[in-house]
Amino acid sequence: MDGLLATLDLTGQEFLILTVIVIVAGIVRGFSGFALSAVVMASAVIILPPVQIIPICWWLEMTASVLMAKGGWQEADRGIVMGLVIGSTIGVPFGLLLTTSVSVEASQLIALTVIIALALTQLAKIRLAFLATKPGLYGSGFAAGVVTGLASVGGMVIAIYVLSQDAPAAKMRAALVLFLFVSSLTSLIMLLWFGVMNSTAAARGLSLALPTTLGVFLGQRLFTPRFAPYYRPACLSLLCALAGAALVRTQFA
Fold first, then answer.
1. Which residue blocks in the chain are alpha helix, DSSP H?
2. Residue 249: partners with Cβ closer than 8 Å, 6 or more residues away
3. How far is Cα 175 from Cα 171, in angstroms, rounded to an integer?
4. Hey, is 210 helix, strand or coil?
5. For residue 243, what are the domain limits?
6. How many CA atoms lie within 13 A of 147 on its CB side?
7. Which of 203, 238, 208, 240 is nearest to 28 (CA)?
8. CA–CA separation, 90 vs 141, rounded Å?
9. Are 48 and 86 in contact (CB under 8 A)?
10. CA gap 145, 157 in Å, rounded
11. Which residue spans traverse the membrane (predicted)?
12. Listed residue (120, 117, 142, 123) closest to 131, CA to CA
């Protein structure tokens, strides 16, 4: 165990806390289809700076996406997914450039503020009509890429884009899941290019993949269709509370 902790560059307490965080985040992803990285970032930012959490989230998102992508390619609108992925691929470097250029305190403030703003936007069910256009498609993808580089929460931007569509909910949810999977592949190149994805980050992500898997399975098992309308508001409220508490602790402690 000591050898593992040395490889991860974490204390036993930090590793235990991170394990609990990713299980909870996996449960949220399992029954809501999004917000895994947002929950991890909002909670783990009190332990690690955002630039170290982002590559961990990459491994966790990839794990969850593999588990949830079954049938997604057939159900999702592939044209929409590819448009979002193209925009995201262009946007990720801009977010990473900012994250790696500012201080830890500033990056924490940016990441948590972005999470709270996106969660409140979704809670308010704000529908932006222009997102249903072609420029809105690529613009949403670009914005998702930027916030992925900032706080690994691109999925929340895509969720806002989904709200602007009139397509069936199942089809758009499949698009969200497939986007997270495909965009993770393109984001890896940028994470390696910026040196954010290193051996320590990979070891942390791999060690937390198993408890994340457990959380996703639990979330899927706990999903009850008749309570579906309440899952998203509950998750977003939890996210606001976590990010708000972390913001207070990191900025005013």
1. 2-8, 12-32, 36-44, 50-68, 72-75, 78-99, 104-123, 134-151, 154-163, 169-193, 199-222, 228-252
2. 46
3. 6
4. helix
5. 2-252
6. 22
7. 238
8. 8
9. no
10. 9
11. 15-32, 39-60, 80-98, 110-130, 142-163, 175-195, 201-218, 230-248
12. 142
Structure tokens at 77: 């609108």
CA dihedral (75, 152, 59, 190) in degrees, to 10, reads 100
End-to-end CA separation in angstroms for the chain:
31
Q: What are 7's two structure tokens? A: 């490889």
Structure confidence by residue, pLDDT tens digits, 158-190: 878 877 776 666 666 677 778 888 888 889 999
Return the structure tokens found at 118: 């996106």
Tell the residue number behind the tokens 């996210």, with chain if given: 239
Angle at the Cα of 169 from the Cα atoms of 163 and 173, rounded to 5 degrees:
80
Please give the Cα distance from 51 to 166 (Å, whole number).
36
Number of domains in the chain: 1
- Could you report the per-residue pLDDT of 4-59, keeping only the tens digit for each? 899 999 999 999 999 999 999 999 888 777 788 989 999 999 899 999 999 999 99
253, amino acid identity:
A
